[in-house]
Amino acid sequence: MTVHMIRLCVGCDTIEDLVEWHGTGNRPWALHTRMTPKRVDELLDGGSIYRIFKGMILCRQRLLEIRTVGEGVTSHCEILLDPEIIRVVPTPRRAFQGWRYLDPKDAPADLSDSGGEEIPDELARQLREAGVW
């Protein structure tokens, strides 16, 4: 059974900021986190990481590989992500620390699947807050 991961995107206000920070190219992105997920097999069975920008889930990236690096107190988790960013229907989400699992039934739909046009992130946020989208 597939499960997703959700995480705050700290230090980036927009998807464009995230792309600029990581750079362009077709090589996988590396995401580092302190704790290694226990449900690795479910995450790698078609799972994605959904990113929250300023209280809104705006995009996702497919999970490619999850591995623990180091041993003991210096160990950490390295998650390799597909460089393709898939925009999703902007969905409000409260802040939290670290990452959480996200059930596929609770994951926002991809914008390309929802029939929605691509609109600026800030406009999408305002429409969601007003309850019209």
UniProtKB/TrEMBL annotation:
What Pfam family is a match, any one?
A: DUF1489
Task: Name the InterPro entries on file.
Answer: UCP032025 (IPR008320)
Look up the domain of life of the source: Bacteria
Name it: DUF1489 family protein
Q: Which organism is it from?
A: Phenylobacterium conjunctum
